[in-house]
Amino acid sequence: MGNEGTIYHTDDSGLTWKIQNSGPCEELWGVYFTDRLNGWVTGNSFYRGGIVLHTSDGGITWEQQYRRPPENISGLFKVYFSDRNNGWITTLRGTLLHTTDGGEHWKEKNIDTYDDLIGIYFTDPLNGWIVGGRWKSSIILHTVDGGNNWKKQNSGVLKPLMAVYFIDKNNGWAVGDGGIIIHSSDGGNNWKIQYENKKESMTDVYFLDKNNGFVTGVEGTIFHTCDGGITWKKTEKDSHLMGIYFSDQKNGWIAGGMEDNGELKGVILHTIDGGVNWEYEEKNIPGLLIDIYFTDEKRGWAAGGTPASEKYKAHNDGSGIILYTDDGGNNWKTIFRSLRPESGR
User: Fold this and answer.
1) pTM for this entry
2) Given phi > 0 = left and psi -120 to 50 = alpha, else beta, which region is 98?
């Protein structure tokens, strides 16, 4: 198989593995489901480009829907569907991928910017925002026509933004490097800094309502506000925290990872009291978990992997992993894993 990897499937929590099909080794960055069966995952490989995977059976099997070659500056980040047919994927250097047929076809849409596009969120099929940046710049894009046109908004900060979340067409938050949390109350026309700490880096944001919200940080920080961001309370964990999602007002999950003897171990934290307390559900997943998504209080998926780096053992070209739970996180099963043949599996 050369530099290609092998995808393994398990249906008994990893006790046994079956070869599913030959496939690429990617670090997976984004996961999104429109219902309990139909979902998409985005991934990257430094040597072979970006990939979009799709499942129509809840993750039992995955098919490649799109491949972006590495010469195209191919990093694919977050995936978001504003409805069952219309989906978006953020990429490097001002390029979006868009589908109008549930991923059967993906077309590139170039935005007039050199900035990387990373976080994306829609409040409805028409109104959406994208955030990103590059080095000492940030960008916010807004659409009111379902993505046909994107208009730049002024963030007021000079750091890349990683994630954005709006609870309605007016009230939203964006977070990013430099410990930045910014807020808008007018649909993004104006943004104000609510929190900033240059020693921190924010990765994701989620709000339950206009008052209660959460922000995760690479340094293991969980920020919680009960007043719409006027004040923030910080909790610290011994992990790199990457993605957050709530299925209801009480139940939420955070995906991330920690370094352990030269390897990345994925972690999942869970709250059952609306974020007052967070406890580890998993601490020994093979690879950093980057994104997490739930369709209801029981069914959820987490995606991640190990980046292409000499730093991490046996993962010099990256690897991908997808986990699934159907009991609210009490048990997580590995339903997809891509590995290089020489990694020893």
Assistant:
1) 0.88
2) beta
DSSP code for 232: -
Token pair for 167 = 């609870």
Q: Which two tokens stand for residue 313?
A: 């053992």
Cβ(270)–Cβ(246) under 8 Å?
no
Q: Which residue has the tokens 């750091």?
A: 159
User: Is the separation of the CB atoms in 30 and 36 below 8 Å?
Assistant: no
Residue 51 β-bridge partners: 43, 67
Positions of E strands within 263-318: 263-271, 279-286, 288-294, 300-306
Per-residue pLDDT tens for 67-81?
A: 877 665 557 899 999
Q: What letter would DSSP give residue 332? A: -
Rounded alpha-carbon distances, angstroms, from residue 103 to 4, 18, 62, 233, 322: 24, 27, 13, 40, 19
Tens digit of pLDDT for each residue in 307-332?
645 444 443 445 788 999 999 999 99
DSSP string, 158-180: SS-EEEEEESSSS-EEEEEBTTE
- For the chain, the structural domain boundaries read 24-343
- Three-class DSSP category at 321: strand
Nearest-angstrom CA–CA distance, 33 and 293:
7
Kindly state the tokens that stand for 254.
Answer: 């955070």
Lowest mean pLDDT among 8-22, 89-103, 237-251: 8-22
Listing DSSP states for 44-112 in one string gives EETTTEEEEEEESSTTSS-EEEEEE-GGGT--EEEEEESSSS-EEEEESTTEEEEESSTTSS-EEEE-S
Cβ count within 10 A of residue 56: 15
CA 78/CA 121 separation, integer angstroms: 10
CA-atom Rg of the chain in angstroms: 19
Q: How confident is the model over 169-209, as pLDDT tens digits? A: 999 999 999 999 999 999 999 999 999 998 899 999 999 99
For the 24-343 domain, the top CATH level (class) is: mainly beta
Contacts of 260 (CB under 8 A, 6+ apart): none
